[in-house]
């Protein structure tokens, strides 16, 4: 029965978790998969999330089914956080809880494929490696646009807009809303306005992937581009992940919002989202979303969470400053944002760093800065000293 199945290579990013775990060298450094780590190298459950879990344990009356939409209070509170009060109230916007950001992206992809099977989805080159499979598995065609200029390691806005000029009306642009994975290179407010203008002129629909709200410049700042595009354009999608900013990785907490040109259209969109969700996962897992709802509902927990997030962002940006000041080839890191940066390394150098120094990073030279502490920055610099260009 299974003879037509070709063996698949393990996911390269997730394989790093296992390889690192199996390495017994004491000085090994894990800069692989994107999880936050504190200055002690731990990924603790956030104190606000722990407190919310305690409350849930004491007070949650039932675990009976909710529905394909998940917890509507969670989705409404998260909409206020991500999109702001006025968009969250819009009758042109509908949202559902999803299993993580990946579930949101996949549900959005299925909805796009159902609404417009001929649409092409444009992504940056490079992007998160799972973006491609998520959209192509839903049957959509994908094309890439330039994003990153390897020379100065800034966003190639000119190249991006020139490539997107080839998009056809009805196409979709998948845009990372902040903290670009893998480059860390960030679009400025004027660039986002140009993208909004392009979408309007050409009839393109933006699909915002907002997976790191609060880990770049701040909760409001990291959501500004998403809000701008939703305010300027009739149609849009937003995939949200609580993995990193609530530290709920394995609980799989996310949401998908879809904006349409009228509330009547939104009714049809919402019914399709529910029908698709029902066939994909029936109902999203509740626990993590209940934790987020509990945190956002209670002023004290919300303040505690927000302060913890400030600390996380402060640590990431302090590491960016330290690395950026340490070597001319790393200077762009101080200007970039989020957990990731691309180091200018060849594949053989990346392999040698792993084999000889126990430094683990993705095969394209992406590092998760959170894998470092201020104490291990010199160790990384020592490992890199023969490899970085002057
Ligand atoms: C990453 O890019 O490392 C994270 O988004 C984790 C993942 O699922 O790939």
From TrEMBL:
UniProt keyword annotations, A-Z: Aminotransferase, Pyridoxal phosphate, Transferase
EC number: 2.6.1.57
One Pfam family linked to the record: Aminotran_1_2
GO cellular component: cytosol
Residue span(s) of domain Aminotransferase class I/classII large: 27-384
Gene Ontology biological process terms, A to Z: L-phenylalanine biosynthetic process from chorismate via phenylpyruvate
Entry-linked InterPro entries: Aminotransferase_I/II_large, Asp_trans, PyrdxlP-dep_Trfase, PyrdxlP-dep_Trfase_major, PyrdxlP-dep_Trfase_small
GO molecular function: identical protein binding; L-aspartate:2-oxoglutarate aminotransferase activity; L-tyrosine-2-oxoglutarate transaminase activity; pyridoxal phosphate binding
Cofactors (names): pyridoxal 5'-phosphate
PANTHER family given in the database record: ASPARTATE AMINOTRANSFERASE, ASPARTATE AMINOTRANSFERASE, MITOCHONDRIAL
Family label: Belongs to the class-I pyridoxal-phosphate-dependent aminotransferase family.
Assembly notes: Homodimer.
Protein name (record): Aromatic-amino-acid transaminase
């Amino acid at each position: 029965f299974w003879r037509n199945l070709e063996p698949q290579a393990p996911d390269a990013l997730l394989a790093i978790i296992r390889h690192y775990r199996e390495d017994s060298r004491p000085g090994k450094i894990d800069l692989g998969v994107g999880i936050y780590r504190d200055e002690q190298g731990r990924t603790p459950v956030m104190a606000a999330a722990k407190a919310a879990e305690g409350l849930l344990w004491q007070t949650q009356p039932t675990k009976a089914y909710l529905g394909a939409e998940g917890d509507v209070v969670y989705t409404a509170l998260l909409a206020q956080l991500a999109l702001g009060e006025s968009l969250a109230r819009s009758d042109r916007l509908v949202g559902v809880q999803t299993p993580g950001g990946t579930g949101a992206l996949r549900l959005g992809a299925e909805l796009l494929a159902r609404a417009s099977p001929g649409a092409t989805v444009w992504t940056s080159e490079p992007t998160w490696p799972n973006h491609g499979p998520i959209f192509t598995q839903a049957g959509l065609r994908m094309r890439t646009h330039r994003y990153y200029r390897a020379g100065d390691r800034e966003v190639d806005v000119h190249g991006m807009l020139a490539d997107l000029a080839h998009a056809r009306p009805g196409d979709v642009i998948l845009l990372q809303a902040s903290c670009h994975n893998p480059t860390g290179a960030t679009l400025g407010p004027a660039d986002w306005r140009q993208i909004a203008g392009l979408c309007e002129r050409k009839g393109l629909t933006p699909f915002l992937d907002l997976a790191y709200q609060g880990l770049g410049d701040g909760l409001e700042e990291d959501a500004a581009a998403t809000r701008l595009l939703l305010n300027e354009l009739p149609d849009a999608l937003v995939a949200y992940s609580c993995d990193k900013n609530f530290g709920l990785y394995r609980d799989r907490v996310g949401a998908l919002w879809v904006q349409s040109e009228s509330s009547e259209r939104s009714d049809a969109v919402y019914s399709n989202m529910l029908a698709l969700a029902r066939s994909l996962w029936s109902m999203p897992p509740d626990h993590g979303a209940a934790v987020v709802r509990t945190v956002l509902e209670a002023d004290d927990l919300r303040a505690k969470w927000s302060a913890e997030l400030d600390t996380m962002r402060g640590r990431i940006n302090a590491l960016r400053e330290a690395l950026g000041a340490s070597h001319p080839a790393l200077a762009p890191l101080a200007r970039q944002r989020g957990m990731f940066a691309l180091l200018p390394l060849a594949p053989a150098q990346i392999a040698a760093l792993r084999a000889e120094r126990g430094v683990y990073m993705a095969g394209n030279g992406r590092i998760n800065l959170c894998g470092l502490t201020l104490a291990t920055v010199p160790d990384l610099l020592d490992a890199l000293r023969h490899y970085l260009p002057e």
